[in-house]
Amino acid sequence: MRDNIKNNLHQIQQAIQQAEKQFHRLSNSVQLLAVSKAHSSAFIREAWQCGQKAFGENYVQEAVIKIEALHDLPIEWHFIGPIQKNKTRKIAEYFSWVHSIDNVIIAQRLNDQCPPHLPPLNVCIQVNISHESTKSGVLLQDVSALMENIRVMPRLRLRGLMVIPEPSLDFDQQRKAFHAIKNLLDQINQIHGLFLDTLSMGMSDDYIAAIAEGATIIRLGTAIFGSR
Ligand SMILES: *Cc1c(COP(=O)(O)O)cnc(C)c1O
Prior knowledge:
It is built from nine helices and nine strands. By secondary structure, the protein is of the alpha/beta class.
């Protein structure tokens, strides 16, 4: 057992609890997703033995190898990376969550390819708030339309929004970006009469700010496993 994974998880869980208190969040309202890209299945197994139940992966080929190696553990697998069209079948077969939906064609393929013996796939729309054409994600003004399309897909269960803001070391700046996404989710729920419950936001360097602004899933890699 590598002490540092165990210690890191313990420290992060304490930081989450403290932030929940400090920012008036309900206790246990923030779920920790362990981002295991570039780390071995042995590390994932160690983290599991320390009580970590949900893991996030970015690359389909890499993920499938690890998922098969760890099939004896009932891990909840989340896909959080960019999605190529020819990888949707594997994603629908191997994962129970997809955080990075940013167009209707990918959503339709995931819906059509979600195996009938599995529950519907939990999905989030990835929002692009930095307006860089290179970044994945849907622009704010296009989120509502994509959401309307996904809502009627029977094999997808729309859960909320995901964002990767521009990195910033300034806490208030970090909060601003997350605040915009929280507002967007509130607006969408109000306008469409929905109860979307998921805000997937916050990574190793900005997760406290994300918790302050309402994150329900934080995605941490480096803080748990060390540098990649
Ligand atoms: C790699 C990655 C993370 C984790 O980043 P860290 O800075 O290592 O915590 C979270 N979310 C996404 C989408 C990622 O690709």
